[in-house]
Write a structure and sequence with these properties.
This protein has helices at residues 7-17, 23-40, 43-55, 57-60, 65-76, 78-85. It is globular and about 35 Å long. The protein contains six helices and no strands.
């Protein structure tokens, strides 16, 4: 398990993501916060990422949106990309 750095900061960012889905913010900021959470391998943070993906699955998987998100995350956030491929 990787050492968790700034767990509270990452948790705060994930809590804010859970409030609403904004495509531009998701692509510009949120995916990186979610990747940091996944990198920690902390069960609480990973669970929050899963919750975000579940909550916003309909918005994320809209035609055109889903493909764009996969394209960007494939190279920039590989751990998140793996999760997104499976939703």
């Amino acid at each position: 398990m990787a050492k968790v750095k700034n767990k509270e900061e990452i948790k705060y960012a994930l809590e804010n993501i859970l409030l609403y889905f904004d495509f531009d913010e998701f692509i510009g900021v949120d995916i990186y916060d979610m990747e940091k959470a996944l990198e920690t391998e902390d069960p609480e943070l990973v669970s929050m990422v899963d919750e975000i993906l579940k909550k916003f699955k309909n918005q994320i998987t809209e035609p055109g949106v889903y493909e764009s998100i996969l394209f960007i995350t494939e190279k920039n956030t590989p751990l998140l990309y793996q999760k997104l491929k499976n939703i």
